[in-house]
Amino acid sequence: MTCDEARIMLHALLDGELDAGHAREVEAHIADCADCAAEFAAQRQMQRVLADTNLRYAAPASLRNKIEASLPKAQTPPSRRSVLRGFAMGSAVSALAATGIVALVLRQDDQQRILSEVVSAHLRSLQAGHLIDVLSTDQHTVKPWFNGKLDVAPPVIDLTAQGFTLVGGRLDYIDARAIGAVVYKRRQHVINLFVAQTSSTEHRPPKTQTMQGFNCRRWGERGLNFWAVSDIGGDELAEFVDKFETAMKANAEG
Amino acid sequence: MPATSDDPDKARRFREAALPYLDDVYTLARYLLRDASDAEDAVQECYLRALKHFDSYRGPAMKPWLFAILRNVCNAEYARRAARPSAIEDTPGAADQTPIWQESEASPEAEVLRSRDAGAIRKLIDALAEPFKETFVLREINNLSYREIAEAVGAPVGTVMSRLARARAMLRAAWTAEEEHSR
């Protein structure tokens, strides 16, 4: 690697954008080249100072109001009423749930509705202060927190080493039921992993859908339904699900 | 039984999908236009256009999509300013925001940059030339990945990387120069 190349690549290294092979190449160059090492150190230092400084601007309230005012008015706000109507429709689901077996019998449009609820829950979680009920990067803190709050605590797996940082957990409501949400971060992007119990134990392979610009990857395993939602790219989300499934399998066997 | 008409529902979905990024979009607009009221107008226009095209929007991610729209709005604003050169002259402080430094070779040992207040750093960033500034702001302040930046600005990832390297080198040079000056 030449110095010219390194002067560009070292930024990608700083930003965590390099795969292991390229990262090693850049690191090897820096180890051998005093000039590039100095540049790397200086850039890292500048990045830290920048990260410690609030360089964002807050949109004025007047702007927010103007934009709100320009949106078509909802005559019937998307109220509890219409939401409840939706649930009344699913009374077959509720009847089954009453027997103690929490069943999710999903028809196609139900799936679409639930997907939209999952995405809405993800969006709600992004508003300040709604993301996390229990804040911890330790799976042994997050998992017990769910106990007693849900019939079945969701699997909580630390994927920090795989590039997805566990940041905590939260109770959320999807389809009128309390479910667990495990929260991860990839760089600054939030990934919500929603986990709900289901009576079906069959394995359903992961499938990605996109709604409102969010990727949602959904799968079923060992009596649980999973939805992973984020604004990261589809391939990164698939990587997350792969890593999660692999770790879960390893846990089950180990 | 979809009882509600389509429009309020679309507005609700749009509100939930796009409004959480208002501060992000406004931040980028402030850096691109360097003027609070122009930024406000541009962001409002950006959201109007986004709503108009929301039906055809199929991803990828909302943030880069909004940024791409904002860039188009800002380009129109640049064109308007260029047509009326006096407008630029009127921008407060435009004269002292002209880059005064040379992109000097970094000195061999890493100088330690002193922490500065946010206002001073914003000024240094404001003074960066385009397209380096937007790449820098998208990465360092709006937290986009390289791929998302490439998407928002419509350039290959390799171009994003070299612009970012250039932007950071320029910023550091300006920062260091200013510290020397104030010493």
Automatic annotation (TrEMBL), chain A:
Domain Putative zinc-finger: start-end pairs: 3-37
Tell me where the transmembrane regions lie. Answer: 83-106
Pfam families tied to this protein: zf-HC2 (PF13490)
Q: Does the keyword Transmembrane helix apply?
A: yes
**Keywords attached to this entry:** Membrane, Transmembrane, Transmembrane helix
Database matches in Gene3D superfamilies:
Anti-sigma factor, zinc-finger domain (1.10.10.1320)
Q: What is this protein called?
A: Membrane protein
> What is the organism of origin for this protein?
Bradyrhizobium nitroreducens
TrEMBL record, chain B:
**Residue limits of the RNA polymerase sigma-70 region domain?**
21-82
Q: Which UniProt keywords apply?
A: Sigma factor, Transcription, Transcription regulation
Cross-referenced Pfam families: Sigma70_r2, Sigma70_r4_2
The record ties this protein, via InterPro entries, to:
RNA_pol_sigma-70-like, RNA_pol_sigma-70_dom, RNA_pol_sigma70_r2, RNA_pol_sigma70_r4_t2, RNA_pol_sigma_r2, RNA_pol_sigma_r3/r4-like, WH-like_DNA-bd_sf
**What GO terms are given for molecular function?**
DNA binding; sigma factor activity
Top-rank taxon, per record = Bacteria
Checking SUPFAM superfamilies in the record gives: Sigma2 domain of RNA polymerase sigma factors, Sigma3 and sigma4 domains of RNA polymerase sigma factors
Q: Which GO terms describe its biological process?
A: DNA-templated transcription initiation
* Ranges of residues in domain RNA polymerase sigma factor 70 region 4 type: 120-171
**What does the sequence similarity comment in the record state about its family?**
Belongs to the sigma-70 factor family. ECF subfamily.
Q: Which PANTHER family match?
A: RNA POLYMERASE ECF-TYPE SIGMA FACTO, RNA POLYMERASE SIGMA FACTOR RFAY-RELATED
Q: What is this protein called?
A: RNA polymerase sigma factor
Organism, scientific name: Bradyrhizobium nitroreducens
